């Protein structure tokens, strides 16, 4: 088991013991998908790519890719963003 895996496991156990939400303690994104027309991402690290067909967002240890049609950023805050359009897929890399 690598050092990163041990660190993550420790944080998860500590989060469970202290009853702290995992997204806070583990630096995880909170993602809310409303139907296939709205997506909210909290705890992001910035936008990697933004077009009408693809939005890629940096999160914690990777990225979230949203593919669709007529995608627009409706709200962009330092730790939260809101995407609207016809969402076809959501993937984690």
Report on the structure:
This protein is an alpha+beta fold and 93 residues long. It has a domain at 28-92: Immunoglobulin-like. Helix content is 22%, strand content 55%. The protein has two helices and six strands. The chain has helices at residues 3-18, 22-25, and strands spanning 30-34, 38-42, 44-50, 54-59, 62-76, 80-92. It has a six-stranded antiparallel sheet with strand order 1-2-6-5-4-3, with no helix packed on it. It is elongated, with a radius of gyration of 15 Å. The two termini are 21 Å apart.
Alpha plus pi helix count? 2
β-strand amount: over 45%
Please estimate the helix content.
Answer: 10-25%
> N-to-C SSE series?
HHEEEEEE
Name of the CATH class of the domain at 28-92: Mainly Beta
Order of strands side by side in the largest beta sheet? Answer: 1-2-6-5-4-3
Helix/sheet category: alpha+beta
Instruction: Return the average pLDDT rounded to an integer.
Output: 86
Q: Which blocks of ≥5 consecutive residues have pLDDT under 50?
A: none
Shape: elongated
What is the strand tally? Answer: 6
Named CATH topology of the domain at 28-92: Immunoglobulin-like
CATH architecture of the domain at 28-92: Sandwich
Main sheet record = 6 strands, antiparallel
Rounded Rg: 15 Å
Distance between the termini: 21 Å
Topology:
Blueprint: H1 3-18, H2 22-25, E1 30-34, E2 38-42, E3 44-50, E4 54-59, E5 62-76, E6 80-92
Antiparallel strand pairs: 1-2, 2-6, 3-4, 4-5, 5-6
């Amino acid at each position: 088991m690598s050092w990163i895996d041990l660190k993550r496991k420790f944080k998860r156990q500590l989060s469970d013991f202290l009853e702290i939400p995992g997204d806070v303690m583990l630096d995880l994104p909170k993602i809310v998908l409303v139907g296939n027309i709205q997506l909210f991402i909290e705890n992001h690290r910035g936008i990697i790519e933004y077009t009408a067909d693809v939005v890629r967002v940096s999160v914690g240890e990777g990225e979230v890719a949203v593919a669709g049609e007529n995608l627009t950023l409706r709200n962009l805050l330092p730790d939260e963003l809101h995407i609207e359009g016809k969402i076809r897929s959501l993937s984690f890399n």
